[in-house]
Amino acid sequence: MSTTTRVYAFEDEVAAGRRRALLGGKGAGLQEMTRLGIPVPPGFTIATEVGPEYRRLGGPPAGLEAEVEAALARLEARLDRRLGASKRPLLVSVRSGAATSMPGMMDTILNLGLNDETVEALARESGDRRFAFDAYRRFTQMYGDVVMGVDHHLFEDALGAVKLELGSPRMLDSELDAAALEELVARYRRILIDRTGTSLPEAPREQLWAAIGAVFRSWDNVRAVRYRKMQGVVDPLGTACTVQAMVFGNLGETSGSGVAFTRNPSTGERMLYGEYLPNAQGEDVVAGIRTPVALTATASVPGREQTSLERRQPDVFAQIEAHCAQLEAHFGDMQDIEFTVQEGEPFILQTRSGKRTATAAVRIAVDMVGEGAIDEDRAVQMVDASSLDQLLHARLPDPELLEARGTRAVARGLPASPGAATGRIVLDADEAVRLAAVGETTILVRRETSPEDIHGMKAAAGILTATGGMTSHAAVVARGLGTCCVVGCSALAVDYEARTIAVARGEADEARVFSAGDTITLDGVRGLVYAGAVDAVAAASIPEYDVLMQWADARRRMEVRANADTPRAAREAAAGGAAGIGLCRTEHMFFSPERIDVVRAMLLAEADADADVTGPSRRRPAPRGSAGHEADRAREPWLDKIEPMQRADFEAIFDAMEGRPVTIRLLDWPLHEILPHGAEEQARVADLLGVDRRELARRVERHKEQNPMLGHRGVRLGLTMPGLYRMQARAILSAALACVSRGVAVKPELMIPIVGFASEIEAARALIDAEASALFERVGRRVEYRVGTMIELPRACVCAGSIAEHAEFFSFGTNDLTQTTLGISRDDSAGFLPAYRDRLGLIAADPFAELDADGVGALMALAVERGRQTRRSIKIGVCGEQGGDPRSIAIVEKLGLDYVSCSVPRLPIARLAAAQARLVAKHGEPG
After folding, report:
1. Active-site residue, from 473, 629, 672, 806
2. Residue 394 has what pLDDT?
3. Of the chain's two ends, which shows fewer C-beta atoms within 10 Å, N or C?
4. Does the annotation count 712 as an active-site position?
């Protein structure tokens, strides 16, 4: 084995568990293929750990030059060639390769080692002067672009000029003769001098070290950085650098380059899929400067079967087919393979797990189990859980594909609810309802949404807001409705009076203005907004999906529940495989106009409401003389109107869940979100209460808060207006009794929100238990129920032991826990968190989308530990939106939680991610 510590020849032994992290995906694949006896041009890889130091120093770290020289000497001896020699010169490629596959994102240089002397040696050895200068012009262009920073379009313009001078501007590159290529090299070198003041180095070792440095620096190029952000790649080391002996696909018609997938990456079908370019080097296939031919005759354009590699060179095709089968079988996954054929001899240059659609991913995983190639555990781990959004919802094509067609997004926000939606812009909810009634499809655009907009949100095909985060009102409601939604689009300015929206395009450019009635398209998977109509890709239904999910469910330890607030959402949750409802937000039941005004009247029935937290409410009249009791009595008529509404909803939800647990959060509505603000709203409520509008406005003003998200909400509202939680307890338990009387099993769980003190849950629980006892005594029957609390304040985490004395379950409300821990308003975070993540690099991910493991996660771990010390049997889950995020699910699996709960559309993602997290906990990361 090599004695170096940072440079590894392909034939060196590296422990399989370290290989990818140390050598990058490309280096690891080359080393493994060499070990398997696959024909691979020899070479060596400089480890990923060198990259950060190389970039920091601006050059090679101490001792690296000696290690590279030693590896180069071994390569020269093996091939009997020398870098820079006038006879049998060694030419190499210098390529990047990170641990995470980033196809096409970083830089490559081919044919390194050519200069004015070695190009003549290459021409003599090959007997083909045209080939030698074709290689030289390619090297000059790639070196100029990658190392010297010269715009590649300048080289392409020079190529076009030469073709024009030859009288054939549409001629193929392969049709240029040796003289034309020599002229092209001369012009390329003049471009380098004109643009940089220097020419191509003649010394091959100088070329090599400059190329190595450029490859390490390419980790930070714009497209690589953008790709990592888009894909959520976090890799502190970066790329490795591979130096490999060249093989030439441009040595004539029996040579060529191609790409092969061992299965169809779009459909998952088991077939060799790919393209081949005769007499070409690898970048020609990627660049699209010539039309490739199919690998197989069956995939060829009808009438062109004879042009396929299978028909042109059947022996070569058979060898490549055999190598592809061997590599797929060895790696246990579909492979994306790059190959070069040099004068009838195939060489494999790279293999990696191929990128694929969600449909293909699911089908490949299930098929490979059926073929005996992998087991079910491996199949469950092969599919990216987040990609199931693509499979289950209509979606737009990838942004890169749309850009290639000339369609570019005009704005970006946060992807709050998946899917795709196209429609006419409407700026108010009533208009959305009116247009929906006549068959028009609309996109509701608002600065932010409120409960008043719910009817329009239901009617619209999509929702777009200028403010708000992933847990804002718009985001939560849209996910519950299954409606495509983009929030926090900070470039958006909504002018309700002018009935326009303006999209900022940069400080120097005028905003693009859209009017109500204009058509736009939303991408709810990526958070993008497009002008006009963009065709969506329909959701696909494949039988393999059901098989995969059965395997996943069998491997999960945690339950997966759904956040569902309506009977319809509960039915969808049950159909989606939910083990229960982990969060039913009772305030969402009041969104309809006929209900919300009744709730407002109840809250404003009395300006002062002192606490009364003892005993049941209506059936035991409270002593007179208390303002609090007077307020309770004033609210009772309104509570009497609300109770049957809630009872009917709860009964329908229990019916839908058929004995599964239903966790119902008692009212947790910041008052500013429900109180009437506009003149029309206040007039309606004033009429209901029989007071004049000035009195109603005065009562609203008395409830106004400076920081309502930390104000009079949750348990604080329930204890200071005890009739409210008493009514809700009666409604829940009466609904449960009604279901039991019809033979429907029920498991009601009453959850008290915003608890920070053990005394709060003790008082609230006493109120609920007293009301339950009175109800059971009155009807002569009883039903089992549980009482627990949301853990959404840092103090609740620290004091979880004492809180657990009164709670039978905990559910982490990670939305509020994140904002109270970080001191960041979730509704305002869209204004700066993207800059923190993307431009400043201060955070790796949006903490409202992906759980903050070090901060919020540490508090959760403390709460779990202290809660279970007090009550070993306590059930603990999470019900924030992070409950549907695969990375967050991996964290809560480590914490030992009992369940996660997420929005209905994310149920499949959570089910698969929970299984994957469990498999990793048991067996480690998949190899």
Report:
1. 473
2. 80
3. N
4. no
